[in-house]
TrEMBL record:
Reactions listed under catalytic activity: Hydrolysis of terminal, non-reducing beta-D-glucosyl residues with release of beta-D-glucose
Name this polypeptide is given: Periplasmic beta-glucosidase
Fibronectin type III-like domain segment(s): 685-754
One Gene Ontology CC term in the entry: periplasmic space
EC number(s) on file: 3.2.1.21
Similarity-based family: Belongs to the glycosyl hydrolase 3 family.
A GO MF label: beta-glucosidase activity
Recorded superkingdom: Bacteria
Organism of this sequence: Flavobacterium nitrogenifigens
Matching SUPFAM superfamilies: (Trans)glycosidases, Beta-D-glucan exohydrolase, C-terminal domain
Location in the cell: Periplasm
GO annotation terms (biological process): glucan catabolic process
Length: 766
């Protein structure tokens, strides 16, 4: 009798999922398909539609969750998940409503934009990509997952893998640059870092690849704008990173705002069903972006009922904030505009994700307050963030070896970004506590030590226009605008410059000058700062420009006049320390650009893997030629090409070899090159391999990245680096969208950037 009572009690626990206190041990439950089918058999239509609903909670005050507006819907089973709620205490209160007050006790998903770290913030994704180090990138996502999961979050809306070749678009900061191959490698690393190949762990979280698809190619570089491109370009240039994330097992996908083939992605069945599920085999669920469903009304796709049915039938399972599913699908079902089978499939996918996360076994799995106190913003995580940030910085110029700086004498640190800790984490740092970030001023003082005198002056505001500065410093990322006149600010800066041996100018964008809805038509440093920089250069003192940006900027003037330029992006909470580590040579810079820096906005979009024309320039000096593909007022090439980045040492490439000049479809070639550190510092170099398909059934890019290795060489050391080439590296989508490798001639280039000139050739035979 006693054993029967124990079994009965356990059965009730399994069927009800009700746990008034967080369980120390998880409950054993049925296999996933059986469990989910049994649960769905008990659900009403309203409860099913509730699982498809993802509202934002606002930030519920601790202790008031039960009286919040969303609590009633949760108790009625009308919410599948919440986002934008932070802290384990608040999340536990809300989860308690779901698993104790709703009829079926179904736990909630809790999502957040954990984009480049949680409270320990890493460089913006564009900066992270410039490390070219997949282990470091994966580690950053793993630490982010550890911290977020310790604070109750079990789902992140990351990675963003949109290819972008137009830096006018502000969200270039949130992606990994212009290249599909590198983007795919980073997508895999991020997914693996978040999900750790095992969602049952309490420190792994569900990843969400976004924005599917083509979001990074809006017309005019304007956010949310129309996207229009051929299928061949989609599959060859823009789809690969999304597919790489799917191949890595990403658990969810977010639809993009833009249209694809004239139909908004959120309602595009070809995209969400034919490509994502049928061609790529995606098994997870699709969520809209914020209000993505009702926004299709403005696109001209019908009323809320129309667009909600369109999205569901296209293959979208979860409605973020729009509440179109919750409010209209019942009517659409009655009118046979959607089927119960389609609704059931959507519900099943969301319940399966919750099962995979272990929420049915323990709804409070992510609500351990001990972890929240001991695993967030730890010294160990901050140390790793500092090391990773230093690897992301890109040295663009270093005339006469001005850098590294000596830890002696007097340094004049000048500029509106010099003492701006709130801006160091960059855009999309929603969980960051800005007061914990390290400014460049603090970093330089601490790293330089007591033997170095550091003087500071702001020098100028971000921009002469106060309204512009307000718009560019939202979300608590103030630059504390100085009320003094520009003349007063400049006079103070020049006084500091007079007393200094070297000037470090901290200039560029503020954190929110890039990011979502921060498109720009002028990509130069704001005029107020340009005027300051020119005045500092006129003093005759050596000037180092530490450039803060969330996108490639047009710095053609600065490249001509400033002796040393270090591109710092926004390097996260430890930015000040990381930048100082590089400035003083404690870390030798090794970052390489993943997005081309243009000479002029008029060149945009610009990228290295472009197609040739029938009338290319015949000279290599950039001189204008009539009736050739060029500009009358600008050179064709970039200011800084993809893959570019200097070091305090120098690297020499020599003795490139290929194992054979022919390869068949089942064969493999080996390309080797000797790389020698010929300078005076130990350093790291990213060796890059590019391939050009010389003749194809469709036109092919002038070169494409197909491999890279980041190596460490001591001063004077030589290393032979080898790459394997197989037929998979030669494949592309032809005009019939078949993924093929065509026989013919290929050139292989190896070097330190996309202008690599060490070349070998081979033929792919039938």
């Amino acid at each position: 009798m006693k054993n029967k009572l124990v079994l009965l009690f356990l059965g009730c626990a399994v069927l009800g999922y009700a746990q008034k206190k967080p369980a120390k041990n998880t409950v054993k439950i049925k296999p996933k398909s059986e469990f989910v089918a049994e649960l769905m058999s008990k659900m009403t239509l309203d409860e099913k539609l509730g699982q498809l609903n993802l509202p934002t909670s606002g930030d519920i005050t601790t202790g008031q969750a039960n009286s919040s507006n969303v609590a009633k819907n949760i108790a009625e089973g009308k919410v599948g998940g919440l986002f934008n709620i932070k802290s384990v205490q608040k999340i536990k209160e809300v989860q308690k409503i779901a698993v104790e007050k709703s009829r079926l006790k179904i736990p909630l998903l809790f999502g957040m934009d954990v984009i480049h770290g949680y409270e320990t913030t890493f460089p913006i994704p564009l900066g992270l990509s410039c490390t070219w180090d997949m282990a470091l990138i994966e580690r950053s996502a793993q630490i982010a997952a550890k911290e977020a999961s310790a604070d109750g979050i079990n789902w992140t809306f990351s990675p963003m893998v949109d290819i972008s070749r137009d830096p006018r678009w502000g969200r270039v900061s949130e992606g990994s640059g212009e290249d599909p191959y590198l983007g795919g490698q980073i997508a895999k690393a991020m997914v693996n870092g978040y999900q750790q190949h095992d969602l049952s762990k309490n420190n792994s979280i569900l990843a969400c690849v976004k924005h599917f698809a083509l979001y990074g190619a809006p017309e005019a570089g304007r956010d949310y704008n129309t996207v229009d491109m051929s299928h061949i370009r989609m599959f060859n240039d823009y789809f690969p990173p999304y597919k790489a994330a799917v191949d890595a097992g990403v658990g969810s996908v977010m639809a993009s705002f833009n249209e694809v083939d004239g139909i908004p992605a959120t309602g595009n069945k070809w995209l969400m069903t034919d490509v994502l599920r049928k061609q790529w085999g995606f098994k997870g669920f699709v969520v809209t972006d914020f209000t993505g469903i009702p926004e299709m009304i403005e696109h001209g796709m019908g009323n809320l009922q129309d667009v909600s049915a369109l999205a569901l039938n296209a293959g979208v399972e979860m409605d973020m904030v729009g509440e179109g599913f919750l409010g209209t699908l019942k009517k659409s079902l009655d009118e046979k505009r959607v089927s119960i089978e389609t609704i059931d499939n959507a519900v099943r996918l969301i319940l399966e994700a919750k099962y995979d996360l272990g929420l049915f076994q323990d709804p409070y799995k992510y609500c351990d307050e001990k972890r929240a106190k001991t695993e967030i913003f730890t010294m160990d995580s901050r140390k790793e963030a500092r090391q990773i940030a230093a690897q992301s910085l890109v040295l663009l110029k270093n005339q006469n070896q001005l850098l590294p700086l000596k830890k002696s004498g007097t340094i004049g640190l000048i500029g509106p970004l010099a003492d701006a800790k709130e801006n160091m984490p960059g855009t999309w740092s929603v969980a960051t506590k800005m007061e914990n970030a390290v400014s460049l001023l603090r970093g330089i003082k601490e790293v330089a030590g007591s033997g170095t005198k550091v003087l500071y002056a702001k020098g100028s505001n971000l921009d002469y226009d106060e309204t512009f500065e307000t718009n560019a410093t939202m979300f608590g990322k103030t630059l504390h605008r100085d009320a003094r006149t520009k003349e007063e600010l400049l006079a103070e800066a020049l006084k500091v410059a007079e007393q200094s041996d070297v000037i470090v100018a901290a200039l560029g964008e503020s954190a929110e000058m890039s990011g979502e809805s921060s498109s720009r038509t002028n990509l130069e440093i704001p005029q107020a700062q340009k005027d300051l920089l020119n005045a500092l250069l006129k003093t005759g003192k050596p000037v180092v420009l530490v450039l803060f940006d969330g996108r490639p900027l047009v710095i053609t003037d600065e490249e001509k006049t400033v002796p040393a330029i270090l591109n710092a992006w926004f390097a996260g909470t430890e930015a000040g320390y990381a930048i100082a580590d590089v400035l003083f040579g404690d870390v030798n810079p090794s970052g390489k650009l993943t997005s081309t820096f243009p000479r002029s906005v008029g060149q945009l979009p610009i990228y290295y893997a472009h197609k040739n024309t029938g009338r290319p320039l015949s000279n290599t000096e950039g001189k204008f030629e009539k009736f050739r593909s060029n500009y009358i007022d600008e050179r064709n090439e970039a200011l800084f090409p993809f893959g570019f980045g200097l070091s305090y040492t120098t690297f020499d490439y020599s003795n490139i070899k290929i194992s054979s000049d022919k390869m068949n479809a089942s064969g493999k070639l080996k390309v080797t090159v000797d790389v020698t550190n010929t300078g005076n510092f130990d350093g790291k170099e990213t060796v890059q391999l590019y391939i050009r398909d010389l003749v194809g059934s469709v036109t092919r890019p002038v070169r494409e990245l197909k491999g890279f290795q980041k190596i460490t060489l001591k001063k004077g050391e030589k290393q032979t680096v080898s790459f394997d080439i197989t037929v998979e590296d030669l494949k592309f989508y032809n005009s019939d969208l078949q993924f093929v490798a065509e026989p013919g001639q290929f050139d292989v280039f190896v070097g330190g950037n996309s202008n690599a000139d060490k070349k070998v050739s081979f033929e792919l035979t039938k």
